[in-house]
Amino acid sequence: MSQLYEAESADVVVIGAGHAGCEAALAAARLGLSTIIFTINLDSIGMMPCNPNIGGSSKGHLVREIDALGGEMGKNIDKTYIQSRMLNLGKGPAVYSLRAQADKNRYHMEMKRTLENTDNLYVRQGEVVDILTDENNNVTGVVTESNALYPCRAVVICTGTYLQARCLYGDTIIQSGPNGLRGSSHLSECLKRLGVPLMRYKTGTPARIDKRTVDFSKMQEQKGDEKLVPFSFENRPEDIAREQVSCYLTYTNQKTHDIIRANLDRSPLYSGVIEGTGPRYCPSIEDKVVRFADKDRHQIFIEPEGEDTNELYVSGMSSSLPEDVQRDMYRTLPGLEHCRIMRTAYAIEYDCISANLLKLSLEFKDIHGLFSAGQFNGTSGYEEAAAQGLIGGINAAMYCMSKPPLILDRSQAYIGVLIDDIINKESREPYRMMTSRAEYRLLLRQDNADLRLTEIGHEIGLISDERYNRFLEKKQSIEKEIKRVNGVNIAPSEKANDLLTSLGTAEISTGAKLSELIRRPELTYDLLAPIDEARPELSDEVREQVNIQIKYDGYIKRKLKQVEQFKKLEEKKIPEDINYDEVMGLRIEARQKLAAVRPVSIGQASRISGVSPADVNMLLVHLER
Amino acid sequence: MLKVNLDDTIAAISTPVGSGGISIVRISGSEAIEIANKLFIPRKGKPLAERKSHTISYGNLVYKGEVCDEVLVSLMRAPNTYTREDVVEINCHGGIRAVTAVLEAVLKSGARLAEPGEFTKRAFLNGRLDLTQAEAVIDIINAKTDKSREAALKRLDGRLCRKIKALREDILTMIAHIEAAIDYPEHDDETMTYSMIADGVHRVSGAVQGLIDGADIGRIYNEGIKTVILGRPNVGKSSLLNAVIDEERAIVTDIPGTTRDVLEELINIGGIPLKLIDTAGIRDTDNAIEKIGVEKSRKLAEEADLVLLMLDGSRKMTDEDRELISLSENKKRIILINKTDLEQNIALDEISTLDPIFVSVKTDMGIEQLYDRIKEMFLKGDIAENDEALISNERNKNSLYKAKLHLDNVLETVNNRMPEDFISMDLTQAYESLGEITGESLEEDIIDKIFSEFCLGK
Q: pTM here?
């Protein structure tokens, strides 16, 4: 190795400036630690190499939680969105899903601007090739390809899909990261040297096509919502009002499927060239056609990538078929008959780890001060990455300040579910957040992310006093109004019954509690305003909370009861120095899994794949002896 | 999600079942007092929850408006209790009926049936027992958790297991439909309508009720073997009933048939509780009202666990006799040939293959033999082969109850036209309750199901 020179030192170094890296670096710097963020290319900060949107089912929840904790993703998408929709309305408040189409380039520019203008944060282009540790396995610094040594106390690895990346379509194999960006070829070796086993995952992206060559009249237009809901709790709807662009819906057909089937042998996915494991929730179009052979068509969404570009994202048609086949198959779609491809679809393979190696703080169990977040941890998705980045960055800072880490549990946040899952569950494919994974999702709504987490964000130091005070006011007015409503009785007056009849619900013959009326399926808090005379003037947000908390009170209470049970087991701690070989009656598989994951509580132990209830009972007996 | 059985509230009958003048239902856990408070109506004074620790109160135990029994309730607050948790002991009248009713009320109000040895296990885990005592207990726990679980699964009737798996699959399909639509909002796979869900839930719920009604060993043990005496008028049914009752002084309860037109008598034969269904008043020696129709007999036989079919040995068989033989063919059945003290006119070749017992109710001949046959049938066969079999089965029943409750909630949610998320919530709980019987977990099931059934993704 050539002579190293000592460059600047820092408290925290973040490797990678994707969605995880940006949150990690901003959090650490905002907590007052000097932070350097490295990226292979400054023009790829906050890049969205795949779909051009943020949010959606459960992912929208993550973004709102990130915002409530003081992260950046919500604010950045509020600045740069070009279409916004609330999905799942009518399926229950817990699963309302906010999703916005992003102007990709502006998203990147705004994120870059924010990083560049954050105190304590230095942005540096360069590939990190080595992480240095001392004899006690403490992180001491990183080295770049230019032989520069950056001494530091904590490192957050956020390398996304760049480690030993290769992109594939047909016979074409390119050793590169996403979007033709250079991959990272040395860090994998370094990690192996540090004793970190690596795995190989795969994902893919569809082609981008030229807007001028698409006939939108043959597709179904999908407009944005008129009623806007910002991602960030700091923004009001009027703050983010703007002209929105449309997306378009079209379908594959028999011809598309014939072309795909005829060329399957030319796909590296099926010829065995691809080694990595791909996700079930993000299958390539060839996968869909093979696995769901009886389906005669698949939905395809055409989404603009931004306002200053003609590139359109063909959502639902990621592929690793050869370029000529891609062209032919895209052209079978109504509206795409004459489309021209601007970027070819490809599959990408990369090195990542099993998150079983990490603690719940996202620190490596065996390397002090080394944290990791995002796709490197075996997840997928911008939002999942950002959520981990935020926690990794906060905890790297906490580590430097010798403070206890921030750990959110499954009853507090989707972020808690996400991290708990990846650390305890066996990982067989890239992990995607889903609402079905959150057993307490009724409590983890996107509307109440601020009520759940602002307090924590403030305590850590990422939420300003000003924002916190505003939040307290909101919280108090919700509580006050709920209390008031619970005490209101509605008399069976003519006015009341006229209103009830007009809303399609039964009249009342004796006095009724206002709260009971709100719980009727046809009614809401707002609809009953005319007969609730003493009602104060309240904001949309407060009224929404009052309605949800009263209307679904019974269900919410049942969930809270489950959470109580859950908490009891979480509070039964397992000492760090436990020797599982000494625990009587454990099955061998459970013994190995427990020793590998090293759960902190009985609750966590019970969620590890391969640990049975009987094993947990044995563990309880052991702990009480 | 896995269940660790330590933090919920448990209950069990803590006195030997079916004997003694008093039976006790013990409840332990954080909700013990809350549960007892809901059910206990004190004769006078403050509600139970507001009373002092280590006091005894007198009143009625009432579930859904019906009095289960007149009881004494001991309230013992943590930590000075056997388990170091809140403990409530409900002293009720002896005999199976009352104590079972009380236990069921407690279970339906939120407690879970205790595993064998679980009170002791909690006492240990909560630090009440010392280390030497604990060593002994650990052995018990080892045996009772691992083995009894295995045993329970092994013993679980293969048919029941398959049935439950099929029901769970039905529920899972409904959940997967709802969840796929939630997690992939724009996806175009057909969504389930309220009526589709209601139909599906009705189907599953009916099947679960069927399993509950299906009279497994646990119910027989707890409620008695439902026994019906069938036979033509004048064959001696009422004499038999009276003979048995006179002889056995252990009449436990006498429940007037308020909702049905039969009386039930609970008697104890060598430790086996027998619940005799008095068919349309056969105790009444007035033969005029003894006659019951074939259809009614068929129905009674269907509901019974045991049919005692009585023929008159002094007469020739009639078509009605043959009909009764044929309609009870698939039941556990004992054929009694009465009036052996008289001249015999019955054609033996027609019934010898049915292994009849010859009795004379009048002279008490053959009654012992009848008791032996009943014991043989139920002691050797299913019942009391092993305590664990009973208890794990009772636990299964408890899970079925819970599943049923959650399914009822789904229907209510559907009726109220609540959004899908809430439907999914109750379906999930029903799925988990059934899964407790087969020992399977939830979350990965749903995710796998979603991705195997639906073509999703960007």
A: 0.74
